Amino acid sequence: MRSLFLCALALACTLPAWATAEDAGPASNRRLEIYASELETRDRIFGQGRVWIDSLVVVDSAAWFELRNATGLTELESPVILHWMRGPDGQLLGAYRVASEVGKYLPFEFLVALDGELAVKEVVVLNYREARGGQVQRTRFTGQFRGKTASSPIDLNRDIIGISGATLSAQAVTRGIKKTLWWAGRAFAVGEGRP
User: Fold this and answer.
1) For the purposes of burial, counting CB atoms within 10 Å of the CB of 125, is it exposed (0-12), middle (13-18) or buried (19 or more)?
2) How far apart are the first and last CA of the chain?
3) How far is CA 19 from CA 14, 16, 154, in A?
4) Domain residue spans of the chain
5) What is the pLDDT of residues 119-137, one digit of tens each?
6) I need a labelling partner for 17 at 20 to 30 A (CA). Which of 65, 83, 159, 170 fits?
7) What is the 3-state secondary structure (H, E, C) of 123-165?
8) Angle, alpha carbons 163-166-172 (nearest 5°)
């Protein structure tokens, strides 16, 4: 009996930390699908040879309060990095953000591209880490966000048709797009062309 206990203890000590963590879900649900890179996706959407500027949008308690009131989102957000470019006349030509949201257990990344008017130009899932829910990378789902702005209604199963079997992942994409639109609106006042 003692040797059985020692074998079980030795096995438990050799497992990777994520294999025993409850929040990572069962091992059968983990995988990594890489669909595209950030740079390839950005160049495909906006064209090559563009000069991009990165801006860190400062996050403070007042911003959290505004975000919650504007979008209904309650979870905290880490500092937001927006990438943007201007034309020769100084006009904002586009911006994008790589959002990271949690599906059922694990985070996945997707690029939210905005045009010069801060409307969604395209959404591309860059990678996905779970066995279920990867259908959110299909254009049939992501294409529904094109043209949406911070003032557009963007509610899953009302304005956006969800995906059976990928409910949490679809919610994550919707949440990330809402955040991106809100942060972009805060960073770039349309017409003012800041920062």
Assistant:
1) buried
2) 68
3) 10, 5, 36
4) 31-187
5) 999 999 999 999 888 899 9
6) 170
7) EEECEEEECCCHHHHCHHHHHHHCCCCCCCCCCECCCECCCCC
8) 100
